[in-house]
């Protein structure tokens, strides 16, 4: 059986802060198992311990207790680190360098050289959408462009494992989709991706497994669908062709509803009520356009767990963007 891409047992981390060396517990007995070739989403509010976990995995921070391995090797083994491509939350490069110079420089640090490195740097620049910026220095890059360059440098030595801290940060919707597509493509090629993110819709779109971290503890972990409450919360019915009297009859069975550009939309509290509404719509000469059950989303699951744990609502959900803060 192949080694897990990431395995952690009992990871704990205590920081000492301030003049009095006050103890702050960032992680408490964290266990992780990430299979090769999977896409693992790591979510949690600010201060939950996500960045501490990632820094332990890439060897930047030592745990106070516990251990972690990458493909069976301890994280402090240099051979383990060669297997990792790392994108920090806020990547930073020498601002006088051009993107190809950055990739060649970092490629040489990873043991690459010559024509192979040149070809790889050129291909990665194209892959992350920066070929049109090849002649610009990094100081002229936007935050999103720096993020793309950070993703390229994580890939420069073709590692089997990518550890990405907020890979979608600073990207516009098109850039986010391109990065999501790249992550899925890399997983199809057999690479393992472990990433933290604020954007829960991205987790729902591409992840095989999800871990939810609260107060330094992993409170939920597993396949995405296993984490969600599968029960139907409501059912939306969209229809066309109803006159005012028929629409009023259907509305009497619904929890809410009214006219929309294509006809009418109604929300029913249960599948049974929606079925009765659909039958009445057809019986009154209407046409069904959509009948969609509404289930709990990952965002709703996360907020529910965060509130149950005592995390402030403002940390559990950032307004307006289907985002968990952290």
From TrEMBL:
Domain ABC transporter: 6-240
Listed SMART domains: AAA
Designated name of the protein: ABC transporter domain-containing protein
PANTHER family recorded: ABC TRANSPORTER, ATP-BINDING PROTEIN (PTHR43335:SF2)
Organism: Anaeromyxobacter oryzae
Family affiliation: Belongs to the ABC transporter superfamily.
InterPro entries: AAA+_ATPase, ABC_transporter-like_ATP-bd, P-loop_NTPase
Pfam family, one: ABC_tran
């Amino acid at each position: 059986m192949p080694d897990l891409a990431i395995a952690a047992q009992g990871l704990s981390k205590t920081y000492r802060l301030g003049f009095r060396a006050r103890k702050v517990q960032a992680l408490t007995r964290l266990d992780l198992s990430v299979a090769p070739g999977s896409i693992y989403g790591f979510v949690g509010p600010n201060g939950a311990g996500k960045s501490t976990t990632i820094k332990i995995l890439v060897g930047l921070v030592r745990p106070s207790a516990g251990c972690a391995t990458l493909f069976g090797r301890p994280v402090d083994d240099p051979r383990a680190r060669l297997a990792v491509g790392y994108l920090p939350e806020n990547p930073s490069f020498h601002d006088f360098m051009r993107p190809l110079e950055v990739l060649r420089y970092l490629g040489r640090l990873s043991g690459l050289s010559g024509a192979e490195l040149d070809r790889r740097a050129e291909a990665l620049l194209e892959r992350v959408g920066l070929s049109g910026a090849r002649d610009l220095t990094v100081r002229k890059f936007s935050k999103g462009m720096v993020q793309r360059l950070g993703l390229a440098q994580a890939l420069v030595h073709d590692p089997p494992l990518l550890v990405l801290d907020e890979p979608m940060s600073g990207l516009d919707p098109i850039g986010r989709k391109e990065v999501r597509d790249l992550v899925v493509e890399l997983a199809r090629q057999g690479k393992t991706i472990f990433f933290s993110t604020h954007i829960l819709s991205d987790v729902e779109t591409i992840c095989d497994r999800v871990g939810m971290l609260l107060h330094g503890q992993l409170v939920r972990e597993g396949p995405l669908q296993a984490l969600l409450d599968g029960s139907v919360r409501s059912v939306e019915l969209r229809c066309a062709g109803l006159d005012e009297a028929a629409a009023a009859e259907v509305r009497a069975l619904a929890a809410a509803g009214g006219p929309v550009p294509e006809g009418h939309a109604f929300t029913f509290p249960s599948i049974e009520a929606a079925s009765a509404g659909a039958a009445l719509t057809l019986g009154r000469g209407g046409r069904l356009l959509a009948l969609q059950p509404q289930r709990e989303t990952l965002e709703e699951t996360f907020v529910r767990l965060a509130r149950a744990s005592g995390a402030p609502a403002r940390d559990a959900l950032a307004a307006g963007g289907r985002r968990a803060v952290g």
